[in-house]
Write a structure and sequence with these properties.
Number of strands of chain B: 23
Strand content of chain B: 15-25%
Strand content of chain A: under 5%
Shape of chain A: globular
Oligomer: heterodimer
Number of helices of chain A: 15
Shape of chain B: elongated
Distance between the termini of chain B: 133 Å
Number of strands of chain A: 3
Structural class of chain A: mainly alpha
Helix content of chain B: 25-40%
Order of helices and strands of chain A: HHHHHEEEHHHHHHHHHH
Largest interface: A-B, 52 and 44 residues
Distance between the termini of chain A: 11 Å
Chain lengths: 374, 627
């Protein structure tokens, strides 16, 4: 481990600042979400927990910064194996919550291995692709290992069942893959297989409630008080915010539990209802800045692994934002994907913080110019 | 390491990243546009929707006025009824939930589903009533299983409670749900669909007082329909309470005395027209009507030959029989057809034209004056008087006595009876009046029809010296806190067409009926109370002149109706009673004892203060108390 003074020089205060701002916004919105609800006494505990998670997250960021990301990259298989192992343990001994078996209790800590898996997979994929990247794009051969790397955790996660995280995993993997360029013929082949798979999956793979979710996504009016209910109430909450919102702590939809999961998946509705279009735009802007920052880090890094890794983390943030906000506004099916740093949830906060830690890690070390190693 | 920037790899990376940036910007723009669509374009609509989901108007039913008797004993109350309701959207899958519910509370699944299918598609958000007025046991079960029964809610509604079952049922009346036509008519502005209004008796006549005014609340509800906050409240105005003139213990005593008979008893206060008792048997349980009477029970009531749904006191018309002789006597004296000295001889019959009109005593009464004729109810005496008077003059005095017209009691469906005249018969039957028919009229048979109430009013007038009062059933209307809203004053409707002297002569005769040695009602004579009255036996079917038969052997339905009308104490009457027992054979044997016992109970109570009446909550049973 090298402790270079240049590390401090290149410390990415900007990124830290943006993350800090988003965290602050998150806490403000979360406060509203937990205060206005009917059982607010219990929910204030969540507020405290979130702050603790964020603080812990920042701590973890600091720790990660100390390790060169390339070293992490070398250990990618190790991390990967550990994560898969944890997933298997979850399958065997995991705690059930919310209809699926996702949690693992390790002493005082309760965690979702599927969250860690995201990071691990990104690192592993980045490592694999960094070696094989080429102008023409990846061929079939090149994709075998990545495919295997993806499918193992995917199937374990989907089995929990956690379709949301599973799909998110695939999306991130797919994005990274497409980013490093794939041969056209490979793309078409996969597209073809996908088209064939869709009806198979529909009729034999999807559970009824999952089918219902998709159908409701296509037509929410189909079930105004059931599956489509969350979306409609969410849209009402968002729309009723209009331009300037109803004011802090004055969200009626929020307050009356018309928004279920208002402190987790649907937290944007709280923001939209209370702060209006203005508030939402501010958050969108912050997120966009964050993402572009991440892309910039990817560009500034002279190391291919680092670039892909930076991109991978950024895409992870991106997809979470896109899916969550899209879902909340009725553009996406209802899947349990939290909004980074805004939704309540220790796993989500920590995972994203780890991601930011990696970004900052890469950013700080952009003065390294070689392809790999030192 | 120069030339890094021109490294093709970096160029490639830049390209890819630019592509990615564009994608990000594109996606975020889409999200932003979507936000604009929701918040700006549809903003107003969503703002409104967020209000309609949250803010609801809940109507608050007012509590119906209570009904008390003259001594402030509560007769009709309100109690909470627990209705089982379902909100279809919350209860999905509906069939499963209802099945589970049916199993838990022991109701029929089909019946419960019936209520749902009847409501149709309009009712997704509104609670539908599955079953009204569930028992406490069922309530406990539903409450305990709340989480297994989504969408099932308990609604608490105030419901009518008739404390003394079957007591004064006809007078008090019952409630029924308002129908669409009545709602549209606008006669009931404070009533909503599903509410009940008075359909009979006092409940109906005083509906506007008893029905309060609905209130409302503006509430914020959460998605489960639970009220989170109350924004505004308009308090409901409770209905006004009503204080009847009815005497509960006397009423119950009268009903007990009527047990086993079909008939009616009306008791009034001669000084002001207060109705102390209005009993009609067989009676019905008003509580059965709450929430809608079952068709089985309704059928049973309709098919009962005793006609329990008729208030015999005001809705049934009977020939007055010998009680009419009071009118004949009064008319005869006033018209100077006879006076206190006039004697007619009764050989047991009266020959008129080529017909023999029987006296009930075939052996004859001998010489009769008006007093003894009343005492012994001699038909012949009154045939003679009636013949002289003629039907029209009799009709005149009958009308003067309040017969042939409604008394004006504040109850619906009062019948006016019938007092025939020549003109009437011409109109009705297109026939001329036969002189012989007058004879029947003069002893109260023939076309004459009266209601027990009319007779009570008449007797009260005779007792009090000639004042006809409008029967008063409600003394006052009060606010729930006690402030009097309206006082209903006694009302005089007329005076008997008789001079004081003539009237006292008539009264003398009436006194003899009970206290004379040959009085037809001497058996009911009381030690310390003078009762003055008249027996009557109304023929149910006409008998051939001279025909002999044993009444006891007749089928009950062919037996005569028994009348007894009276007042007591004779000098300063405090109560006037009219009793009719259908198919009771003789007035003296069945009707008179009822009146006598009632008077004993009433006056014994007021004089000595000792109540010897049945407890309010005990069953009405068995035979009346013996002396």
């Amino acid at each position: 481990m090298m402790f270079d003074r240049r590390l401090i020089e290149y410390f990415d205060w900007g990124l830290l600042g943006i993350i800090f701002l988003i965290c602050l916004a998150g806490l403000i919105i979360l406060y509203s979400a937990v205060t206005a609800g009917a059982d607010s006494a219990a929910l204030h505990v969540l507020m405290k927990k979130q702050v603790i998670w964020m603080a812990a997250g920042f701590g973890i960021v600091m720790v990660i910064l100390l390790i060169d990301f390339r070293d992490i990259g070398k250990l990618n298989l190790f991390f990967y194996t550990v994560c898969v192992g944890l997933l298997v343990s979850t399958y065997l001994f995991g705690k059930v919550g919310g209809g699926s078996q996702r949690w693992l209790v390790l002493g005082p800590v309760r965690m979702q291995p599927s969250e860690l898996m995201k990071i691990s997979l990104i690192i592993s994929l980045a490592a694999v692709y960094a070696e094989n990247v080429s102008e023409q794009g990846l061929g079939f051969r090149n994709l075998i290992k990545p495919a295997v790397l993806c499918l193992i955790p995917f199937s374990l996660i989907v089995n929990q069942p956690d379709l949301g995280t599973g799909l998110l995993l695939l999306l991130i993997a797919g994005t990274i893959t497409l980013f490093v360029k794939v041969e056209k013929k490979v793309i078409f082949t996969f597209a073809g297989i996908g088209l064939l798979l869709v009806p198979l999956v529909w009729f034999f793979g999807l559970k009824d409630y999952q089918k219902g979710r998709i159908l409701t996504f296509l037509d929410p009016d189909r079930d105004p008080l059931g599956a489509g209910y969350h979306i409609i109430q969410s849209k009402i909450a968002i729309g009723s915010g209009m331009i300037t919102g109803k004011g802090f702590l004055h969200g009626t939809q929020n307050a009356l539990n018309f928004l279920p999961e208002q402190h987790t998946d649907f937290i944007l509705s709280v923001l939209a209802e209370e702060w209006g279009l203005v508030g939402c735009t501010v958050l969108l802007f912050l997120y966009l800045v964050l993402l572009i920052w991440g892309l910039n880090i990817s560009y500034s890094c002279r190391n291919m692994f680092g670039s892909i890794l930076a991109f991978g983390v950024t895409s992870m943030i991106f997809w979470q934002i896109f899916i969550n906000i899209g879902m909340v506004m009725g553009l996406m099916p209802v899947v349990g994907v939290p909004l980074p740093l805004i939704s309540y949830g220790g796993s989500s906060v920590v995972t994203n913080m780890v991601g930011f830690g990696i970004l900052m890690n890469i950013s700080m070390r952009k003065f390294t110019s070689s392809r790999s190693g030192q | 390491m120069g030339g890094i920037n021109k490294n093709p790899e970096r160029e490639w990376l830049k390209q890819r990243l630019m592509g990615a940036s564009l994608c990000f910007v594109f996606v975020f723009s889409a999200l932003f546009l979507r936000l604009v669509y929701l918040q700006v374009i549809k903003g107003d609509e969503y703002r409104r929707l967020s209000k309609t989901n949250c803010v609801r108007l809940k109507s608050i039913k007012s509590s119906r006025g209570l009904i008390y008797d003259r001594n402030n004993t509560l007769l009709v109350d309100n109690r909470p009824a627990f209705d089982l309701t379902i909100v279809l959207e919350d209860a999905a899958p509906v069939k499963k939930t209802v099945k589970h519910l049916a199993e838990l509370i022991g109701e029929s699944f089909d019946e419960l589903m019936d209520s749902i299918t009847k409501a149709g598609r309009s009712a997704f958000y509104k609670p539908l009533t599955l079953k009204r007025d569930i028992s406490r046991d069922q309530l406990a079960i539903v409450e305990a299983h709340q989480f297994d029964l989504p969408g099932i809610y308990i609604d608490i509604e105030p419901t009518r409670h008739y404390i003394y079952q079957k007591t004064a049922a006809h007078l008090l009346g019952y409630l029924g749900q308002i129908n669409r036509r009545e709602l549209q008519d606008g006669k009931y502005p404070n009533v909503k669909a599903g509410d009940s209004i008075g359909r009979y008796g006092v409940e109906k006549s005083f509906e506007t007082f008893l029905q309060g005014k609905r209130g409302g609340r503006q509430v914020e509800v959460d998605v489960n329909g639970r009220v989170i906050k109350v924004l505004k409240t308009v308090d409901p105005i409770p209905g006004k309470d009503i204080c009847l003139t009815l005497d509960l213990s006397l009423q119950r005593h009268a009903e007990e005395l009527l047990t086993g008979h079909d008939g009616a008893v009306v008791a009034m206060d001669p000084s002001n027209g207060d109705v102390l008792v209005m009993a009609s048997t067989p009676s019905f349980d008003q509580n059965d009507f709450i929430g809608g009477i079952s068709s089985k029970k309704w059928r049973a009531l309709m098919d009962d030959p005793g006609r329990p749904m008729i208030n015999k006191a005001i809705q049934a018309e009977y020939p007055p029989a010998s009680t009419y002789k009071i009118v004949t006597a009064m008319a005869g004296l006033e018209e100077r057809v006879l006076d206190w000295k006039t004697k007619f001889y009764c050989p047991g019959f009266y020959k008129f034209g080529n017909r023999r009109y029987q006296c009930w005593n075939r052996h004859g009464h001998g010489d009769m004056d008006v007093v003894s004729a009343m005492e012994r109810s001699c038909d012949v005496f009154f045939y003679r008087a009636g013949e002289e008077l003629g039907v029209d003059r009799l009709a005149q005095y009958a009308n003067g006595a309040g017969l042939g017209q409604v008394t004006g009691i504040r109850l619906a469906h009062e019948r006016r009876g019938l007092v025939p005249t020549k003109a009437w018969k011409k109109r009705r039957y297109k026939e001329a009046w036969q002189a012989g028919e007058t004879l029947s009229i003069s002893i109260g048979q023939g076309f004459n029809l009266v209601t027990p109430l009319q007779m009570a009013v008449f007797m009260a007038a005779v007792g009090n010296g000639g004042t006809l009062y409008r029967p008063r059933i409600v003394k006052s209307v009060r606010e729930t806190e006690g402030g009097v809203v309206k006082h209903i004053e006694p009302e005089i409707t007329g005076g008997l067409p008789a001079s004081p002297e003539n009237l006292s002569l008539v009264k003398k005769g009436l006194l003899k009926v009970v206290h004379g040695n040959r009085g037809t009602a001497r058996r009911i004579r009381l030690k310390d109370v003078d009762i003055a009255g008249k027996t009557g036996t109304a023929q149910v079917f006409s008998r051939k002149a001279g025909e002999k038969f044993d009444n006891k052997k007749l089928a009950r339905t062919l037996q005569d109706h028994a009348w007894f009308v009276c007042y007591a104490p004779a000098k300063n009457p405090k109560i006037a009673v009219s009793v009719i027992i259908e198919h009771g054979e003789h007035g003296s044997s069945t009707a008179a004892p009822v009146a006598g016992e009632l008077i004993r109970a009433y006056l014994g109570q007021t004089e000595s203060g000792i109540a010897m009446l049945p407890e309010a909550n005990s069953h009405v049973s068995g035979s009346p108390e013996q002396e």
